[in-house]
Specification:
Elements (H helix, E strand, L loop, with lengths): L3 E12 L2 E11 L2 E12 L1 H15 L6 E6 L2 H8 L2 H7 L8 H11 L4 E5 L7 H14 L4 E2 L2 H7 L6
Parallel strand pairs: 1-4, 3-6, 4-5
Antiparallel strand pairs: 1-2, 2-3
Length: about 160
Amino acid sequence: MKKVIEIFTDGAAKGNPGNGGYGVYLRFGDKIKELSQGYRLTTNNRMELLAVVVALESLKTTDYLVRITSDSKYVIDSITKGWVYNWIKKGFFGKKNEDLWRRYLKIASNFQIEYIWVKGHNGHFENERCDALAVRAAESKQLEIDEYYENTEKGSSLF
């Protein structure tokens, strides 16, 4: 049986928009790695998607099947139902998170990926761990700036 890289992800936002964070739990055989980061102003959907992007970008090989498990219908359905590919054809007109979707599409094309949706806050160990990582990151004092959101999607301007 071929080995699988397992990725579990979650995003959180304290307010929507508000402080946010993502949590990632990666497993390959008996090796485990966790990733998380918080942002001062973002949305839950951005953090859900960023978790997947960061997880894929952290992988050092494309030799194995990647299984991504998330509680985000936004992320899983957008990919598995092909919505994101229609958004590309329409230039992402009227769609949010274009920057992250483009990052996702660029990195995902390197992998064979299987997607699994799980119900959040339902006792799934890895999902609960990702939630804890995301919440802790969102509540941290070391918050990054989600520049695309603050400058583009939020409608900020310099003047």
